[in-house]
Structure formats: C-alpha cells, structure tokens
Design a protein that fits this description.
- The protein is an alpha+beta fold and about 650 residues long.
- It has a domain of about 220 residues.
- The protein is about 30% helix and about 20% strand.
- It has 27 helices and 20 strands.
- The strands form 6 sheets. Strands 12, 13, 15, 16, 17 and 20 form a 6-stranded mixed beta sheet that branches. A 5-stranded antiparallel beta sheet has the order 6-7-8-9-10.
C-alpha cells in the first residue's frame, strides 16, 4: 500500500517524534544524571558560603543565642534582616535593613520567603488573629450598623463609623498585624508583632545583653553592638498568649485560675489571693483549669493550623478552632502515622526530634491533621507528651454518663465540666468629647474617645443555651455554655448629629472559658438553677399547694426599664427569647418547651437525690420513669 503524506501531516509527525524524544531525554537526565541529594547539599553549602561571605559578619560575627534552625552561619543575617550584604560601610550595609523582622508588613520578605516558610504569612493574614473579623461584626451589630452579627471584615481596613471608632479606641491593638516597634521580650503588655508574637524568645543572657545595648546606645551610639541575639523557636509559652487573651473572654487568666475584679486599691495585691497585672487590673484567685494544674500549655492542645490559620477566612473564632475535647478523650481514636503527615506537621515533628515511622498519632477529627505530641496504642488508649513539662499523660476516656446517657447526649463537654466563667453586667459605653484618647490603628492621640464604664463582675457557673450547627444539610443541636456578652447601654449622641439618645443591648455570647474540671456540675445546678436557665440570679422554687405543683421565680436584680427583664437575664421566666438576643446567628436561649422539660426534671430533683436509683435510671429513659409515678409525685402545672 502506498501512503502519500501531505506537507502538513508530515510536519505533524515530525513534531510528535521530536517531542517524544525530548520528553525521554528530560526524564533520563533529571532522574538518572542529577544527584538530587548532592545538589541539595551543595545548595546548603552555598548558603553557608554566602552567610560567611556577608559583610554583616565582620561586625556581628561573634553574636550568639540563635536557635539551630536560624543560625546565621547557615542562613546568613540578610535572610531575616535584608540590607546590603556586599558593602562594608555601616550606613551602606544597613540600607534597606529591617530592624525587627517578622512583623506582618514585612513577613513576606523575611519569614515567609519561598526558601524559608512559604505560604504561612498569607495564612496568618487571613486568620482571625489578624483580621478580628468576629469582633468587628459583633461590634457593628451592637451599634446597629449590621442587621445580624455576621460577615467577613479586616481590622486594617475599617473606617471611622461609630462602631469602628469604638474599635480604634479600645480594641484594635490585639491583632497580629499590630507592629512590634521596640526590641524586647514578649510581656503582658505586648500586642501583635506578627511572627514574633509567638516565636520570639529571650534567654537570660539575651535580656541582659539588651539592657547593656540600650545603655551603650545612649553613651556610645556608633559602637553599640548586640552580642547575644534572641532566638526564634517553636517554644511557644503561655506568656506569648497572655497579652491579648487576658482580655475579652479572659481565657489566659481563667486557665490559670484568676478572675478580674473591679478593685482599684493596689495594696490588696499583698494578699496571695490577688494578682496585679502590668496594665493595672487586679485579679482574684479562683479554681484553675485541670489541664493547667497538670502543667499543660496552650500549644499542647492548639495546633499550628488554628493559631496561624489554614488559609481560609472565617467569620467567628469557633469556626477556626480545630481541636476538640473528644480528640483526646475518646474510647476509640482516629490515628495516623508520620508518613501520612502533611508537610508542616512533618517539619514540626522533625524539629521536635520525632522520627518513629511505626508510631501512631491522634488524628484531629475536624482537620484530619495530627496531634504531634500524642501516641495511640491499639486505637483504645493514648498518651500525650507535655511540650513544656516533658511528662507523659494518660488520656482518659469519658465516663459512662457522658456518652451513654440518652438524656444528656446533646450536652457539650463544656456544659458540664466548666467550673466558672467571668461575667459582667450593667456596663455603659459612651462617646465623650473633650477628653484625650488614642487611635490604636493610626497610633496617634485624638481629642475625643469612646469610654467604657464597667458594671458588676461575677465568677460563677455559666448560663446554658442552644447552639445549632449544620453539617451535610443536617442541623445538629447541642447544649452549650454562654455568658452576658453585652448587657449595656450605649450612648452615641455625641458622636455625630445622626445618633440621638441611648440604646440598650442584651446579647449573650458563646463561651469556652478554659476552666475545665474533672468533676462535673451537679444536676441541680442545671435543672433547679435560674442562672443556668437564662433567667438570671434569684430564687427559683418548686411550690406544691393542694397537690398542684408550680415553679416561681424571684429575681435578685431589678428589672431594666428598656426591656423589663432582670439586669443579668438572657430571657424572662418561662418566656421565649428574641432572635436578636445573641452575638451569633446560630445560638439561642432555651425555648419555652425546652425550659419546661428541664424544670420537669428539676421538680423530681426537689424530692429525689440526684444519685438515687430513680434519677439514675431516668438518664436512660426519663419518659419511662414518668409512666411509673407514685401517688406522692407531683409534676409542674404550666
């Protein structure tokens, strides 16, 4: 058979053959001819040569204190500080140098470079620790600038509306984008600093050296040299978290067992039961979290994809949180091996000296990433290695009542095991002219400011309510813990002419107080407690008269003129809550039917001990117990 090929067809075949040969050659060359290990080693050697050849080392070659992975003998000085590494004259060598690398405004040029920690600075930028999105939306909601507490915002991009100026005056310093401008350790007063906020550590030698350096700069500015450098490590202590997280929900202070008071007399701190913070607030000793007593630090639980974000933007903090109690306290563990780790988790494991390929680690259910400091054995038992204490802790499963009780199946761990939560009521916020304030974003003094006047402080058991979450088009309902987020009056009248009079807000907010105890709250503290049910503090009684049972409630606090509810209440007694009673769209107080069910059990507890046989059996099937009532039993009449 004779085949006649036209010019175009022939050209096509030639290109295909040539392309195939080229692909084969490329594969052969890259797979068989290049020694990738040697190439990587050569690059490392080149880095070392570059570091040694930098002009920086002529003045700073004797500096000590660096961590293994940030040693300038390997990565040079310019990897972090930039500058001109070729010039030997001080002013020219320091041109373009960054004094404090790691602030988010320069992180992409320093820490986040492609050959250092690529992608992380972008993740941090979109995380709630940088954007403060939830704080902004809730604040706008409270100021009537949003119809619901939702939406995605960024603190660096807010304007100057009433709510935004309020944030500028009182809240905007607690975000990672806040620039660290001075050398020094992370303290209670530290705010922001980007990567430094968590990773900067000063040894005793580095602290002493810094003080010496400051004195030398005053006396002989040109000859002042640092000889002991702070280190950058993954040793994130609780002190790194404390500055920001001792505010708002006060997680850091709660965890250690300290509750804020309204005291102003600083002499009181001579008493060991009180503590004076660097910002002047006085705290009183309370029960600490059981995990704190054991020696666990924040990062024993919280993983990098929570703290630095995972690249997604979220509206509220609970969406960014990945870890849960059930990840560690379970009867059956999800596990994974080192070979299954993502790149970041592998790197953290490497830095921690973890290289056991046969070891099983707990897999965090929500993120499907590992808890690196854990070890699972036979899927039924696990241990946690304390990052600070170096102790090994047995991770115990929940008790039978937690997982096998029909009555309490919808309760969160926090609802039973939270020992106390910080609460305040009766606050007043107003815009005042003629007083000096400070814009925390623009870092400048201003001639007027928002001022907050605090009400009463409490440290008691939390109020309970309902949280609804949607997964796979199915709504999951759980009982969780809540606190007064804002029970306050708000005066915007002096802010501008458009705002007149005083508005009143009653919002409860979700709380994860970090005051967990092994022992749970009592049955009566939920079913017979007005604060737990959302009515506020007072006398809640089950009265039986002429064989008719009735619940009555007398509040401790007077009724607020704006909504005729007690000052500390979420809802009225046996009344439903307004849809705008919460700082989230998916949380609410108990409905009237739910209140009645809770109080029906409370009526039984008025006579029967919580550990009695009848009440214990009711945990499995309360409806069945109601069918077996004796003639002496009286249920509530509604």
């Amino acid at each position: 058979m004779n085949l006649k090929l036209d010019h175009k067809t022939l050209e096509k075949y030639v290109l295909v053959i040539f392309g195939s040969l080229l692909i084969v050659f490329v594969i052969y060359y890259f797979v068989f001819k290049i020694n990738w290990v040697k190439l990587y080693q050569d690059q490392s050697s080149a880095k070392n040569i570059t570091a040694i050849s930098e002009s920086c080392v002529q003045c700073h070659g004797e500096v000590k204190g660096f961590s293994k992975y940030h040693n300038p003998q390997k990565i040079g000085c310019s990897s972090c500080h930039l500058g001109n590494t070729k010039d030997k004259l001080k002013d020219l060598a320091h041109a373009g140098m960054i004094r404090i690398p790691g602030n988010l405004e320069n992180a992409k040029l320093t820490c986040g470079k492609t050959n250092c920690h690529p992608g992380i600075s972008e993740r941090v930028d979109s995380s709630l620790m940088s954007t403060m999105s939830g704080i902004i939306s809730v604040n706008k909601f409270a100021f009537d600038e949003l119809k619901e507490p939702s939406g995605k915002f960024n603190i660096e991009k807010i304007g100057n509306s009433a709510s935004e100026s309020h944030l500028r005056n009182l809240c905007a310093s607690c975000h990672l984008g806040n620039e660290k401008k001075e050398y020094g350790i992370i303290t209670e007063l530290s705010r922001g600093g980007g990567c430094n906020a968590c990773h900067l550590n000063y040894s005793i030698e580095a602290e002493h050296e810094l003080e010496t350096y400051k004195l030398m700069r005053e006396q002989k500015r040109d000859s002042a040299l640092i000889k002991f450098h702070p280190s950058l490590t993954i040793n994130v202590t609780n002190d790194h978290c404390f500055g920001c997280h001792s505010r708002s929900g006060r997680i850091s202070t709660n965890y250690e067992g300290w509750h804020e008071t309204g005291f102003i007399d600083k002499k009181i701190v001579d008493n060991i039961n009180f503590r004076l913070l660097d910002d002047g607030r006085i705290f009183q000793k309370k029960i600490p979290d059981v995990h704190y007593n054991a020696g666990l630090v924040c990062v024993d639980c919280h993983i990098s994809y929570e703290v630095m974000g995972n690249g997604k933007s979220f509206e509220h903090k609970e969406e960014q949180i990945l870890i849960s109690c059930e990840d560690c306290h379970s009867e059956n563990f999800s596990a994974m091996k080192l070979s299954e780790f993502d790149f970041e988790s592998k790197k953290i494991a490497e830095v921690n000296g973890i290289n056991d390929d046969e070891r099983d680690f707990i897999k965090v259910n929500k993120s499907q990433t590992p808890l690196i400091n854990t070890e699972v054995r036979n899927n039924h038992s696990a241990k946690l290695n304390g990052k600070r204490t170096k102790k090994v802790y047995d991770l115990k499963p929940p008790k039978f009542e937690c997982n096998n009780s029909k009555a309490h199946r919808s309760l969160s761990c926090n609802s039973c095991h939270t020992a106390w939560v910080p609460q305040c009521i009766g606050c007043h916020t107003a815009f005042e002219t003629g007083i000096q304030g400070f814009d925390l974003l623009d870092n400048k003094m201003i001639n007027s400011s928002w001022v907050e006047y605090n009400g009463e402080y409490f440290s008691e058991l939390p109020t309970l309510g309902i949280k609804e979450t949607k997964e796979n088009e199915k709504t999951e309902r759980s009982v969780d813990t809540f606190v007064p987020g804002m029970i306050m009056t708000l005066d915007k009248s002096k802010f501008n002419k458009e705002n007149k009079g005083i508005i009143f807000k009653r919002f409860f907010a979700p709380s994860v107080a970090h005051t967990i105890r092994k022992e749970s709250r009592s049955c009566e503290s939920c079913h017979n407690n007005s604060l737990a049910l959302g009515y506020g503090r007072g006398k809640l009684e089950f009265i039986i008269h002429k064989n008719i049972g009735k619940w009555i409630f007398k509040p401790n606090f007077k009724l607020v003129e704006f909504d005729n509810l007690p000052e500390d209440a979420w809802i009225g007694f046996l009344r439903s809550g307004d849809k705008n009673f919460s700082t989230r769209k998916n949380i609410r107080p108990f409905s009237i039917d739910e209140q009645k069910k809770i109080l029906t059990v409370g009526a039984c507890l008025a006579c029967h001990r919580s550990d009695s046989k009848i009440m214990t059996e009711s945990l499995s099937n309360f409806e069945n117990q109601l069918k077996k009532l004796s003639s002496n039993c009286v249920l509530p009449s509604w």
